[in-house]
Request: fold
Amino acid sequence: MNQDHAYIHREWHRAASMRDLPALLALYADDATLESPLVPAVLNDKSDGVLRGKAEIAHFLETGARSRPIDLVRWYRSDAFFSNGPL
Reply:
């Protein structure tokens, strides 16, 4: 297991559960892409569920944090994660 991937997995969950937006955003590159079925549930103008770039990701995370709790979000966590290649 790649330790960088494991760190990101742990840190993302910690920051999300604490609503630590700066820490969450620090985990994303400026040109990151995030795809989630929660995107259109949180952002009415993003029906494809794909966020491109840190600014769109920040808007999604900020809006989602303000609207919590929402029925679609359930915290489920295991130590399993999937990665597509090196960081």
The domain at 3-67 is CATH 3.10.450.50 (Nuclear Transport Factor 2; Chain: A,).
